[in-house]
Structure formats: C-alpha cells, structure tokens
C-alpha cells in the first residue's frame, strides 16, 4: 500500500513538472530569438547592488508573450527586479509566465485580453505587480487557480502579489476564493467595471484581503455597499468610490474610522451631507466631495473632522450652504478648495479671546473662485481670518464679487473688511438688483396681454367690415364686371373690313366718270 502511494505521488509530481516545463507547448509563444533587437532590453545596477532589468515590448504587434526571458538578462535572480511590459499589442490570451525567481512587474494594458491561462504564476512566485487595465477581461477569466504559486508537498504556495490593476474591464462579479493565494495584496483597482451590485461572493472576496490598504471601486454604478464589506479590512487607508450612484454616504465606511486617511466620493448623487455622513472617521486626512450635481447643502457638523488636512469641494453647481465653522476643529488643514460652487457668503465665528489667532496655521492653498459672492462684511471678515495669500494674477480664475451691484466684478483681493463694513450701499442699486426685469414684472405682463387682445379684436372687426362691404357692392352690380372676348372673324368689324375695299372702288369709279363727262362738255 505504501509503495502504491509513493508511486502515485511520483507520477503526480512528474506530471506537474512536465506541465510546468512544457508551459502549454500546444499554444505558440512569441519567438525569443534576437528579441532585444525587436524590443528594448535594459539592465542597470543601483548603489545597493540590486539589478534592475527592463523588457519593453510595447506596440510590437505581438499576439503572444515570450516563452523565456532574454539571454541578455543572465541567470541571476537573487536581488534582481524585472519589469516587463507588453502593452499595446494584440494578445487575447495571456499565457503562463516564463520561470524566474526575480521580483517581477508585468504590464499588459490595451491588448484586448480576454483570457488568462491558469495557473499564471506557477513559475513566478515573486511577482509583485500586475497591470491588466483597459482590456476585455470578464469574471469567468478570474478563477482562484489563476493566482496559484508553485506546488510543494501537499499544497500550492502563495505568490507575492502586492499591486493588482484590473480597471477598465468587464468584470461583473468576483469568485469567493479569488484571492486565497495572494496574502500580501495591498492595492486593488477595480474601477470602470460592471460591479453595479456587490453580491455575497464578491463582498466575501474583497473582505478576505485583510492586508488591503488601497481599494478603488470608482465608476461601477454602485448605489450601496454591503454592511460586512469592511469588517476585516482594518488596514485600508485609501478608498475611492467616485463616479457611482450613491445618494447617501454608505454607513459601512464608519467601520474604517481608525484606518481610513483618504476618501473620494466625487461624482455621486448626494443631495446633502449631515453630521452622520462622516461620523467616526477620526483618522480621515483627505476628503473629495467635488462634482456632485445634486448637492445643495452641507449641514452643520458634517465636516467636523479633527484630522482633516485637504478638502476638495468644488464644481458643485447647486451648493449654496457650507458651514465653514466645522473646519475649525481641523487645525492641520493645509488645502481648501471650494471653487465653482453656488456659494454667496461664508461666516467664520472665532471667539473674542482667539480673535488674533490664525484659524488654520498650516493652511497654504485656498481656492474660492467661480462662486457668486455677495461681498458683505461677514464674507470679508471670514477671509481675513483665514489669512492666506489671495490670487494676485487676476484674470478669469480670480474670485470676484457678483453682488451688490456697485461691487459687481470687483476682485476680492482689492477689498478689505474695513472698507466694506463702513460702506453704504445705495438703495436704488439694491432695488434694481432685487426686482426682476421690467418685462417680467406683473403689471407689464398684464398690460402686454391687454394690448395684444385689443389688436386681435380690432383686426377681426376690420376684416368683418371689409367682407360685408364687398358683399354689398357685389349684390348691387357695382362690382367690376369680367371682360368678354369675341372672335374677330365673326364680329361686325370683320364684315366691315370685307366691304370697305368694294365701296372705295365704287367711289373711285364714279369720280372718274364724272371727270370724263366734264371734259367732253368743255
């Protein structure tokens, strides 16, 4: 029995070795002869004696990858890093990678990839980065066997994959155990796919990557997130959910309160943000809430984030209210962008005991252009408390007053709170600014309607009178009679024209005979 088991084990091992060495010889590989004349091969060594080798085969019209590495790379793998790129070719099937123990980074973007041969990394256990974006990969090509490492004793070894980019593909779901052989994965990009709903299997696959530090689920059409998605992702630091269909901030994000430092929610469908939106995110340093077409209000307490350093809140066409006082708890704020919104004023209430203190001592960049600012005393005082250098270059990007009328178009950099607070704005300008244009006022609309009605009635009356007069004239035969035409041959004139020559001849003969008789008598 023992001998049979050993024989079976040897047979299986031999088959696996043959499988690994053959690398699916039934599928052709790209010819490797003189490959460094076709592709670019580079080899360098840094100060730490680490060898960096680059194989650049971009845009070579290849249909397959190489079966082995160029001979110019040598055989040394310890302390060696290989960067291989096949982007821009016509590779529909990514075959098993050639064997190496070196650290590998592989890029195959814009290749039209549809299938991935499993196990892809059996002979490449130290692969660190795999970039397969802008292809046609669907979920059936992503199986758990794909990421298996070398087989040792009784199981497959894990691989060292840390960065995986699968963006711009056709992935609609993930298998539950897809990442069971990638225990070191820290970056995962699934942007621009078809993950409009994270089912149980997909959520379990993502939740199993406990080492994940960066996750990109942007532009997938997501409207909600499973509550158990982030329960085990205690190391997640960067989360990108931009370009989706969220109407409220997913409550499950609060589970990342102690680890999440960067959150991107731009391009969603929020109508407002309240004190519960970012609750418990005590470690958040960078927040992006730009390009929100439906956002109108950011309520008090929504931006009370003590660790916040950068806030991007721009290009929200309906945003009219933002509580700047919430940001006073963010003493480390260094960048503030509230440009191109619908904001007209800002208020910043600093206690009298701290009136001389700077609201944000580390603030270096503020963008407020593109808003319809009402240049009031409160606005100028708030901007002076911020104490940042305003734009001095002028031009269209500079913040300007929209109202009141006497200050319209004036750059905010030319104004001070002392000047505005002591300024008396004439009432006539306010009246013109507050009332609608004349053609939209009620009395002018009513007058226009009356005039139009009178014109229509007069036109109808005049037309009615003209019709009646014409009928009356026609009935009394005073109208214009039609011209009658007759044939020239059948008329009296024709007969006269026929008799006229005979009568003329008769008269001529009579005259001649009279003349002859007179001469004889003489």
UniProtKB/TrEMBL annotation:
Residues 1-22 form the signal peptide. PROSITE patterns: LRR. One of its GO terms (cellular component) is membrane. The keyword Membrane applies. The chain crosses the membrane at residues 444-469. The gene is LOC4801428. This is Leucine-rich repeat and immunoglobulin-like domain-containing nogo receptor-interacting protein 3. Keywords: Leucine-rich repeat, Membrane, Repeat, Signal, Transmembrane, Transmembrane helix. Residues 371-422 form the LRRCT domain.
